[in-house]
Design brief:
Elements (H helix, E strand, L loop, with lengths): L12 E5 L5 E5 L4 H8 L4 E6 L2 E3 L11 E5 L3 H22 L4 E2 L4 E2 L2 E7 L10 H14 L5 E6 H7 L4 H12 L13 E2 L2 E6 L5 E3 L14 E10 L8 E9 L3 H16 L2 H7 L3 E2 L10 E2 L1 H20 L3 E2 L5 E3 H7 L1 H4 L8 E3 L2 E5 L4 H8 L11 E10 L15 E11 L4 H18 L3 E8 L9 H18 L3 E4 L9 E7 L5 E10 L2 H4 L4 E2 L5 E2 L2 E6 L4 H11 L13 E5 L5 H13 L4 E3 L6 H10 L4 E5 L1 H6 L1 E6 L6 E5 H11 L34
Parallel strand pairs: 17-21, 23-24, 30-31, 30-32
Antiparallel strand pairs: 1-2, 3-4, 3-5, 6-8, 7-8, 8-14, 9-11, 10-11, 11-12, 13-14, 15-16, 18-20, 19-20, 21-22, 22-29, 23-25, 25-26, 26-29, 27-28, 32-33, 33-34
Helix pairs in contact: 2-3, 7-15, 12-13
């Protein structure tokens, strides 16, 4: 073909490849803004080039695909929120001259910024409206965000009056990098500092990218103030934090604010107080809950449900102590890797002990207590074990973040050839168990080998392949979280969405490549040789405490009948009907229903209202006609309207059926231990979350 058959390209134009496989012709050196104009995209906020986000004003590379990042996608919202955080800092420094500002990262659904106010001042809630008004003035000024790169020396000079910015520059420049993930967005790399300027005199240390100007912002709201220690260290400065949220449109903002209002209505801490489920007595210290009778009953039902189905699935129950000699955690590596998350050691008779942060080392000791044969594998050990972790007081949150919690913890020891099938069965068990609690909309992440890891790459590859096989077998949607595995193990993190769309991480499956080696575990194979087992960590609920919090918020306190501490309330119309009400409650109790009589000490209407506020699933009202006819009035939670004159036997049947724990979905068959037939009628194990 002659050259005349080819289209002539202007020497200053290029065909720019896009990630969707198409291309667009632009002048060489065109920016993301010009690309957006050429494509008719008016909501772009950044460009993704080579996997990196850059400003729209940056000239685009002539090679390699690029992609516009739009405001409504996750990365676009992150850019909006980071830019809004800069405007927040600018407004605070305008209103409080002499204030120091620390860091202001985007976070899930929002952003925050930390400040040290002059004279030790504190933000008040009413200050938020003042700050927000100043932010809207800045937005109205359409101030451009302009990036610049400086030397370390120039950066230190620029932030001479800002001690936190100087510390970031000095620390990152001197060492391998800050450990605080929130500092990753700060623009210090090697011997260079990147900053962003907007408005007269405001400049911030930042990696970027940002929107082209403040005019692209505006759909935001400041939410609350809080205290925070610099770098999470209570020995450092106590800062004032402002939280906010920012979205791509007023409609998206309004929808989020409604979700926040709904989440507040569902807050498990409020529900726990109103239903008298648990408390946090100050005498115990923060993060240590006490369960009251009704809360303890819910936990009992959850735990017994877990025990029963684990036993049916071929697990063996074990029980281990709450503390051990520190040497155990030295061998396991916990004192080397997790010491900051453990409670300080205590000396007893000249020997150092620690509260256990995880159950796994003790389960390893159970396995190692005698010689093991391939005929015993897979060996599945299960425990409802309480562990203790030293969480900073600033991150404690109700039952979702505590210092002492119980895990439905299991560790499975299997031969290498059993790993894939065992993981697939475990994941199926997780989904069946969580589904029995009425939860759904599951998705997963496969976290692979991080840059800093221990173990043979061949073992890592085999473990990751087995985890991927489990996900593929179940058909669960998942994404690859490259490099986000634990230093010792790849893992599957399972997430679910609750009734208002919030995403919760619950279960994790980890294939441990280290503990079997650290404790020199082995089993005798069919060849009579010595072989190393694989070890799988998992705790299906994650923790019983946190899972209860998720359930309370998902159901807004109105738990399914089988979990409700009181399943039926019997209300006599008057004192003359109390003896019959007691008989009704006894009939229900004989059917396994947790029933209580609410005597006629108040009006019937008040007692019905109180029973409904207590989230009791079944309310039975009995009067003279019921005494005479052996019937009850039935007011079922969620029912269209109350029923009158229902035969007691019929009502008892309906309530007993509702109070029965649900069955698991039919499990998929899985191989039993080599050389040993599976137990008759016992489903194969399936599993969940493994924090050890």
């Amino acid at each position: 073909m002659g050259t005349g058959s080819l289209p002539r390209m202007h020497p200053h134009e290029v065909d720019l490849a896009l990630t969707d496989g198409s291309s667009v012709r632009l002048p060489a050196g065109a920016t993301g803004e010009e690309l957006a104009a050429a494509l008719g995209v008016d909501d772009a906020v950044a460009v993704r080039s080579g996997g990196t986000l850059v400003d729209l004003q940056v000239p685009l590379p002539e090679t390699g695909p690029v992609e516009l990042v739009r405001a409504g996608e996750p990365d676009g919202r992150s850019v909006l929120r980071h830019s809004t955080a800069h405007v927040l800092a600018q407004a605070v420094l305008d209103l409080w001259p002499g204030a120091s500002f620390a860091i202001g990262p985007p976070i899930e659904d929002g952003f925050y910024y930390d400040f040290l106010l002059p004279g030790g001042a504190h933000f008040r809630e009413e200050d938020l409206s003042r700050i927000e008004a100043r932010m809207r003035e800045i937005v109205g000024e359409a101030q451009p965000f302009e990036r610049a790169e400086l030397s370390i020396e120039e950066g230190l000079e620029l932030f001479e009056a800002q001690p936190f910015k100087r510390e970031i520059i000095e620390g990152v420049a001197a060492g391998p990098g800050a450990s605080d993930a929130a500092l990753e967005a700060e623009g210090v790399e090697g011997q260079r500092v990147s900053v962003y300027r907007n408005g007269p005199g405001f400049v911030d240390l930042c990696r970027g990218p940002h929107v082209p100007s403040t005019a692209r912002l505006g759909s935001f709201r400041l939410l609350r103030t809080a205290g925070a220690y610099w770098r999470g260290d209570e020995r450092r400065d106590q800062l004032q934090r402002i939280y906010g949220t920012a979205w791509e449109s007023e409609e998206a903002l309004a929808a989020h604010l409604e979700r926040l209002a709904e989440a507040e209505r569902r807050d498990h801490r409020r529900i726990g107080r109103e239903l008298d489920l648990f408390s946090f007595p100050p005498e115990l210290g923060p993060g240590l809950p006490v369960y009251h009778p009704k809360g303890a009953r819910i936990r009992y039902e959850m735990e017994e449900f877990a025990r029963r189905h684990h036993l049916e699935a071929g697990y063996e129950l074990v029980a281990t102590p709450h503390a051990a000699r520190s040497s155990l955690f030295e061998t396991s590596g916990h004192l080397g890797w997790y010491a900051e998350s453990m409670f300080p050691g205590m000396e007893v008779e000249g020997v150092s002990y620690h509260l256990k942060p995880m159950n796994c080392p003790m389960h390893v000791l159970v396995y190692r207590s005698r010689a093991r044969s391939y005929r015993e594998l897979p060996l599945r050990l299960f425990e409802l074990g309480t562990v203790y972790r030293f969480e900073r007081s600033g991150v404690l949150h109700g039952l979702t973040r505590v210092r002492g919690f119980t895990q439905d913890d299991a560790h499975i020891f299997c031969a290498p050839g059993q790993l894939g099938a065992e993981l697939a069965a475990l994941l199926g068990f997780v989904l069946a168990m969580l589904g029995a609690f009425g939860l759904g909309e599951f998705e997963a992440e496969l976290a692979t080998r991080p840059e800093k890891s221990v173990g043979d790459p061949v073992d890592w590859a085999a473990a990751e392949a087995a985890l991927r096989h489990a996900l593929d077998v179940t058909g669960l949607p998942y994404r690859i979280a490259a490099g986000e595995g634990a230093f010792y193990a790849p893992k599957i993190d399972l997430h679910l969405r609750d009734a208002i769309g919030r995403r919760w991480q619950v279960s994790t499956l980890q294939v441990d490549l280290q503990l079997p080696q650290l404790f020199d575990l082995d089993f005798t194979g069919e060849d009579n040789g010595r072989h190393r087992p694989y070890m799988i960590h998992r705790a299906l609920f994650g923790s019983v405490d946190r899972f209860l919090a998720i359930l309370l918020e998902h159901y807004e306190g109105a738990l399914p009948c089988w979990l409700s501490p009181v399943q039926a309330a019997v209300l006599p119309v008057g004192a003359a009907h109390e003896a019959y009400a007691t008989d009704v409650a006894a009939t229900l109790a004989a059917r396994g229903v947790r029933a209580e009589v609410r005597a006629a000490s108040e009006s019937l209407g008040a007692r019905i209202r109180d029973a409904k506020l207590a989230k009791i699933p079944w309310i039975l009202v009995v009067g003279a006609e019921d005494v005479a006819g052996g019937s009850v009035g039935v007011n079922a939670r969620g029912g269209a309207r109350p029923e009158r004159g229902v035969a007691l036997s019929e009502a008892a049947d309906r309530i007993a059926a509702d109070a029965t724990p649900p069955p698991l979905l039919p499990p998929q068959p899985a191989p039993g231990p080599a050389g040993r037939a599976p137990r008759t009628g016992v489903p194969a194990p399936r599993a969940g979350d493994g924090a050890g």
